[in-house]
Amino acid sequence: MAVGTHCSWLLRSLLPSLWEAEVAISAVALLAAAVALLLVLDETASATSPSSPTTKSYDRDRRGRMRGSAKGSKPAAEPGCAGDEITLVAGSSRSRSTTAYVIKVELVSAKYLIGANLNGTSEPYAVISLGEQKRFSPMVPSSRNPVWGEAFSLLAGELPAEVTITVYDWDNVCKRKVIGSVTVAILAQDETGAVWYDLDSRSGQICLRISSKKVPSTSDSFFKQYTGAKSQRKMILTRQRLAMTEDSGPLHAITEFPHDQIVQHSYSCALERSFLRYGRMCISAWHLCFQSHVFSKQLNVIIPLQDIYEIRRSQHSLINPAITIVLHTGAGDHGVPPLCCHNGSIRYKFTSFWNRNRTFRALETALQSYRATLEAEKQVSAHLLLKGESMNVIRSRPDNIKTEDRRIGLTITFQPFINEHVLVDITSNTFPGTPEKFFTVILGEDAMFFQQYRNARKDTDLKLSKWHVSDEYGGNVREVTFRSLCHSPLCPPDTAVTELQHASFSNDKRNLIYETKQQAHDVPFGSYFEIHCRWSLRTTSSSTCQVDIKIGVNMKKWCILQSKIKSGATDEYRREVCKILEAASDYTVKAESNGPAREDIVVTSSA
C-alpha cells in the first residue's frame, strides 16, 4: 500500500497537469505562428522591393562564366575590368563619360554653433555629401567655434551640382543631434575664397572654400585629385589583368568591387555601434569589408586600405578583445559613419573574434602588402619616367657626360620641409616687388628686416644663422632663435622660440617658396606641436608679385588638449603672419625711397 502511494505521488510530480500541458501547447502554437508571419512578411518585402543592381550583375556574370567554362570558351569580361575605362558615379546615376568635375571643399571653421550639451558646449563634426558620396570631418571636443582646416574632394558627373554640409553634435549614448546644415550650389568651374554661410538653425555659421575643376576621367590627374596619388585602384588601371583562379565571393555580392579582387581572409566578428552588430569581415588586397544582417537590417561597411592610418589591439567592455582601426583625417564614405574619439580622430572597432590575434596579424599583413605594392608601383613609375627622360636627352644631347649629369639630376628627390596636410589658406595679397627682391630685402644675409621687426615686438636674443644649401630639402635653409613675449596667463612671461626657414626659387627665378617651422619651447605642451607656414610668391609684373600664405599646426604627439592647441595657435599665428606681410610691404616701399630706419617698422598690439 505504501509503495503504491509513493508511485502515484512520483507520477503526479513528473507528469504535467492538464492545465500545464494546455499552456505549453498554446505557447508553442503562438511562437510557430509568429515565426510563420515573419517569414511571410520577409518574402513579401523581397518580392516587392527591386533587387540590387550589383547582385543582379553579379549573378548574371557568374552564370555567364559558368556557361563559358562549360563550353570550354574563355570567361566573359567582367564589369570594371575591360580595358582601362572607368564608370563614373554622379549621385545615384551611372554614366560613362569622358569628363568629370572634381569639387574640392575646404572646411575651415565654424562659429556661434548651438550648444547641444547641458553645459552649453557641443562636440561638432561635419558631414559633406554630394549625392551618395559622403565625407566625415573629425570631431572637435567641447567647442562652439571649432576649427577644422580640412579639405575633402568629391566627384560630380556634371555641373550644376549641390554640396550639402551638415554639422552634428557627437554623442555616445543618445541620438546625435543636428546642429545645422547648408546646401551650396556649384554652378560652374570656379574657385571661391573663404566664405561664411549661415546654417539653417537659430544660430551658427560655417566657413568654406570651394573650388571645382573639370578633368578627363581617363587621365592620371583625375585619379590623383579625386582619390589621391595612393588610389587603391591605380595599379589595376595601369597593369595587365591577371587570370583569377577563384570565383566571386561575398565581397563581390554585397559591394561594387570588380571581380579581380579575391577574398583572402574571412572572419566572424561584431562591429561596435550603439549595440554590437554581429556579422562577417572579409579582407582583400585593397579593401576591408564588413557585412551584418541582424533583425532584417542590412549593414555594409567598406574601408579601403588606403584610408587606414593605424590598426591596434584594444578591449571592448574591459574583457572582450577587440581591434580598433584608426582612419586618416577626412576619410569617409564607408557605408556608415565612423566613431569619433575625444581627440578628434575617427575609427571603427571590431570585437567578438574567435581568435583576435590571428585576425590582427592578417590585417597587418594585408596593410603591409598594400603599402609595399604602392611603393613598388611608385618605383616602377619613376624608373619608366627616368628611362623616357634619358632617351630624350640622348636624342637631343649626344654628349655622354651631359646625359649622365641629366640622369643623375633626375634621380634626386628632396624631402618635404613641412607637413602639407595640415596647411590652411590664410591670406592672399600683393607684394610691391619681385620674389628675388623679397628674398634680398626681407630674407637676405644683409637684410635688417627681421632685426627691426623683432625689436618692434620687444623680442630679445635674436640670432640668425647664415643661409646654406640643403641636400635634404633642396634650396637654402637657416635657423633663427629668439625669445618672444607670451600674453597667455598659462604661459611664462617669455619663451624660447626656434624657427627653421627654407627658401627655394624656381628655375626662372619668377617663383619663390618660403617655408618656416616654428616651435615654442617653454609654453605648456610646447614639445608636442610645431607651427608650419608656407609663403608662395608668384611674379605678376615687373614690380609686383602675388603672395599666398598657408599655415597649420603639426602635432608631433597626441595630447588631450590637441584641438584647443590647434585652434589657439592657428588664430594667433594667423594674426602674426598678416602683420609680417604688412610690415614687409611697408619696409620694401620705404627701402626704395629713403632707406629703412629702426623706427620704420611699427607693430600693433594683438586684439
TrEMBL record:
Keywords: Membrane, Transmembrane, Transmembrane helix. GO terms for cellular component: membrane. Pfam families: C2, GRAM, VASt. It comes from the Eukaryota. Coiled coil: none annotated. InterPro entries: BAGP1-like, C2_dom, C2_domain_sf, GRAM, PH-like_dom_sf, VASt. Residues 419-585 form the VASt domain. Residues 47-79 are annotated as: Disordered. CDD domains: C2. It is found in: Membrane. It is a single-pass membrane protein. The keyword Phosphoprotein does not apply. Gene3D superfamilies: C2 domain, Pleckstrin-homology domain (PH domain)/Phosphotyrosine-binding domain (PTB). Residues 82-197 form the C2 domain. The keyword Transmembrane applies. This is C2 domain-containing protein. It comes from Hordeum vulgare subsp. vulgare (Domesticated barley). The lineage of its organism: Eukaryota, Viridiplantae, Streptophyta, Embryophyta, Tracheophyta.
